[in-house]
Amino acid sequence: MTDKNVERAARLDTATLSDALDKCGINGQCHRIKPRSTEFRMAGRAWTLLYGPAGKPSGTVGDYIDDVPEGSVIVLDNGGVDNATVWGDILTEVAHNRRIAGTVIDGVNRDVSLCLELGYPVFSRDNYMRTGKDRVQVEATQVPVNIGGARVAPGDIVRGDADGVVVIPKEHEDHVLDTAEAIHNAEEAIRQAVRAGTPLREARKAMGYHQLQTREGA
Question: Is the full-model pTM beyond 0.85?
Fold first, then answer.
């Protein structure tokens, strides 16, 4: 089944969506979450998982992958932990084969070479080889999580590209996407005007460039 709003988000870059989020007064930029390759692109709806420190006996890092629907973005909140990973080559291979759209981690992943080889998009704080087994454990799935200071709830639209990751809350997605498309069209009009010989200052003024991301009502 086609998800028109995910398709709309996929046609826009994260910079434009970030400006739209600012204009709508929504904090949806995932700070310090970066692609393992600048070629990675993804768009889909969030399937979330929350980690916490391992207990004794310790819980597991999760066997959730078979429950994730095709086209989803797996969103893992490991609290920014950078010394133990919650994603590696087996999960990358299975997710790729199941046509998952990508993975976002507030934490680190390992086995980067396979995600690069397969072209499977992974966005995280960094990469590091040490396992999270017996160090962290699954606390809950399909609950709101925190990724780089942005709230991500199940079903929110998650978009990633070379500049990072943004999340569009489900309850605001129509307004954010309408706003982002208007910003995109205004910036494209500026480019076309400049290519036709209009000075940049004049083109920007005509399209209200300096107010494109200004918060509504400000």
Answer: yes
Per-residue model confidence as pLDDT tens for the chain (218 residues): 789 999 999 999 999 999 999 999 999 999 999 999 999 999 999 999 999 999 998 889 989 999 999 999 999 999 999 999 999 999 999 999 999 999 999 999 999 999 999 999 999 999 999 999 999 999 999 999 999 999 999 999 999 999 999 999 999 999 999 999 999 999 999 999 999 999 999 999 999 999 999 999 86
Domain boundaries, the chain: 11-25+170-218, 27-168
37 phi and psi, to 5 degrees? Answer: -140, 140
DSSP 3-state of 130: coil
Distance in angstroms (rounded) separating the CA atoms of residues 132 and 140: 16
Reported CATH class of domain 27-168? alpha beta
Measured CA angle at 40 (ends 64, 106), to 5 deg: 50
